[in-house]
Amino acid sequence: MDLLIYTADQCDPKRCTGRKMVRFGLARTTKRYNRLRGRLVLSPFSERALSPADRSEVGRGLAALDCSWAHAEEVFGTVRLKARALPFLVAANPVNFGKPFKLSTVEAFAAALVILGERPQAEEILAKFSWGHVFLELNQEPLAEYAAARDSREVVAIQAEYLSQDI
Ligand SMILES: C[S@@+](CC[C@H](N)C(=O)[O-])C[C@H]1O[C@@H](n2cnc3c(N)ncnc32)[C@H](O)[C@@H]1O
């Protein structure tokens, strides 16, 4: 599946997972918002959760926005996109390890690929990061359940179970 990263040039280049993906030819990058049209954009601010039913909505591919978390809401707010949020999953990257929902760009793409039935590609992109396999291990159960869900509503119901255990 084609992966595109909109870059806002706000990330620390040494830690930026999106830049590393681009360096390894695993994603392409753009600075033009209009290139995001016709794609399914991964946005933590979307009210709709990604589900396997979105396979038909992917269009030209998936997109993520590489920006700092401090500015994310403002960057996402500037344009209307066909967007989906990822359900409850825990980050394994060194910056936000253990934090729910706050995934790095590569983790967000990997989670989306697993949910959409493209696990080999998820493993391929995570393999470039020493901690990449930990993301799939930490989230093995929820990812399997989300990938087996029928639609966004089922994904949200599964997520609710995990959120009630997390408190
Ligand atoms: C805010 S950037 C931060 C990137 C980070 N600095 C890095 O090096 O990977 C992470 C991007 O991944 C996607 N993402 C992360 N968590 C997400 C979630 N819970 N739901 C949907 N997309 C998410 C979004 O496209 C988001 O803009």
TrEMBL record:
Binding site for S-adenosyl-L-methionine: 17, 65, 86, 105
Superkingdom, taxonomy of origin: Archaea
Protein location: Cytoplasm
Enzyme class: transferase
GO molecular function: rRNA small subunit aminocarboxypropyltransferase activity; S-adenosyl-L-methionine binding
Sorted UniProt keywords: Cytoplasm, Ribosome biogenesis, rRNA processing, S-adenosyl-L-methionine, Transferase
Example GO BP: enzyme-directed rRNA pseudouridine synthesis
Main localization category: cytoplasm
Coiled coil ranges: none
Residues of the RNase L inhibitor RLI-like possible metal-binding domain: 1-31
Positions of the 16S/18S rRNA aminocarboxypropyltransferase Tsr3 C-terminal domain: 40-163
GO cellular component: cytoplasm
Pfam families: Fer4_RLI (PF04068), Ribo_biogen_C (PF04034)
InterPro entries: RNaseL-inhib-like_metal-bd_dom (IPR007209), Tsr3-like (IPR022968), Tsr3_C (IPR007177)
Catalytic activity: an N(1)-methylpseudouridine in rRNA + S-adenosyl-L-methionine = N(1)-methyl-N(3)-[(3S)-3-amino-3-carboxypropyl]pseudouridine in rRNA + S-methyl-5'-thioadenosine + H(+)
Signal peptide start-end: none
Record-listed E.C. numbers: 2.5.1.157
Role this protein plays: Aminocarboxypropyltransferase that catalyzes the aminocarboxypropyl transfer on pseudouridine corresponding to position 914 in M.jannaschii 16S rRNA. It constitutes the last step in biosynthesis of the hypermodified N1-methyl-N3-(3-amino-3-carboxypropyl) pseudouridine (m1acp3-Psi).
Family to which this protein belongs: Belongs to the TDD superfamily. TSR3 family.
Protein name as it appears in the record: 16S rRNA aminocarboxypropyltransferase
Provenance organism: Methanothrix harundinacea (strain 6Ac) (Methanosaeta harundinacea)
